[in-house]
Amino acid sequence: MATLKFKLGAVMRIRKLILGYYAVLFVAFGVLGLVMPSLVSTLIHYDINSPGATMEFMATYGGLFLGVGGFMLYCIKSNVQTGLVCVLFAMGAMLICRVIGFGFHGGADYIQYIYLAGELLTVVLVGFMLVQATPPVTPDPAVS
User: Fold this and answer.
1) pTM (two decimals)
2) Of these four, 3, 16, 37, 88, which has the most CB atoms within 10 Å of its CB?
3) Number of domains the chain is built from
4) Phi, psi of 73 (to 5 degrees)
């Protein structure tokens, strides 16, 4: 029974670590999108040439990433499973939309391929973690 609790504890720590990594990644990208939109847009080869485009970029890359990253941070304490589902949906949606964009528009550069690889790796890793059955922890009668 002690080894089962140890294994469950190790699995939970790994899940929290992975969720924390993505939460920090999303928050950092959101802060950069909000505070330095022209730098981030240049990095990803995205032209923002008008105040309205800059504002939209700040809202999307700043606000959306900050909000999702903040939710992931919240889930570290309240519900790791839900946080990992959030990572899976967010990264999976980006992956699907990026692939659709490749199909319709082509012209991908190395940055797009780096994102594609990261999104695919994330979907596989987090998807694998979520389908792994975590046995329920039963109370030890000797401890009561």
Assistant:
1) 0.82
2) 37
3) 1
4) -60, -45
